[in-house]
Hints:
By secondary structure, the chain is mostly beta strands. Helices cover 3% and strands 54% of the residues. The protein has 2 helices and 20 strands. The termini are far apart.
Amino acid sequence: MKRKLPFLFILFLTSSWLSAQIVVTSATFPEPGDTLRTVLDALPGDIDLLEPGVDKNWDFSNLSGINQETVIKAAVEGDYFDQFPSAEVMVSTAGGNIGELYYNVTNNLYELLGYIGPDPANFGINLLARMVPPSAERRAPMEFFDVHTSESNIQVAFSTELIPSTILDSLPVSPDSMRFRIAINRLDVVDAWGDLAIPGGTYEVLREERFEERETRMDVLVGIGPFSEWMDITDLVGFDFLGKDTILTYNFFSDDAKEIIASVRVNPVTETPVSVTYKYNMADPSISATHYLDQGISDIFAYPNPAINEVRFDFINLPTDTYDLKIFNILGLEVFHKRYKINDRLTVKMDLSDMRKGTYLYSLINSEGKTISTKRLVVLKP
């Protein structure tokens, strides 16, 4: 993997600066009984990640979004523990109806063994995937200047009876089985430390830059019986999810919380923030006017509400489909209509400057005409 380490100039810092940094220990590793509460902001705006270095001050205090809860359980409580018998921890996602992730935990590593969850092609099926070797999500002790490289692979085969016939018709052959192969190469660099402000609190943190290169390929099983073999058809089909991808994330860790204080996904080319997941600090994690609890069901939320000049719509947990967002005034007349292609989540902003003061209803409707949700939106004018 080719990746420059932009923080190497910091090696010449004084010993007093180095001694001021924190150390993140294994006490922050999630364990059975924990519930990690975070907020996802899918439109983080212009937050400044700053350059690598020491004694930094990051201000993410203007973030907002949808609440999420991650429940940590003993691995033996999972439905697929028999597939991961060496796991100590199981994580259920979004109310437990999306998937389960299994982790091995030691004094030094919190590593993903595998998971049961949605397929990478969004064919609408759940697959069991193993990480070979396991993929380290956290390490301890974590210190400034830590550098780690790692590789992991996923191979998962499945019957073509599970996928839509429209997909099969697009293939150059008619196989009985298909297989995804995913190769992951990662470079993790702890390149900065300082204070990070998020809504509700400020934390001493270490920042880890996580640079991941991922290649996804697809095989089909051709032949009969002992003469069958896997054939790579990646270059013969035009699926967008295949090929190489780069994922760049900045994770901010504190020794005072089990949640990652902030995890910033950025565009790997421009390095502008795409989304931020951050620790939820409110005393009451229930639904409020500015935070909504993701319970794993398909839904839509408007924020702020009431709104004045602009409103943000968050679409969550939606099966891949085409959806219509419609807004109606108090007389039932349609005043807004736009169509979106959504896979799981989408966040959009809407300008309200042309809408009058008043109460409106907004509805989300799928391609079959089924209404997913209808809610009230209040528009105020100064």
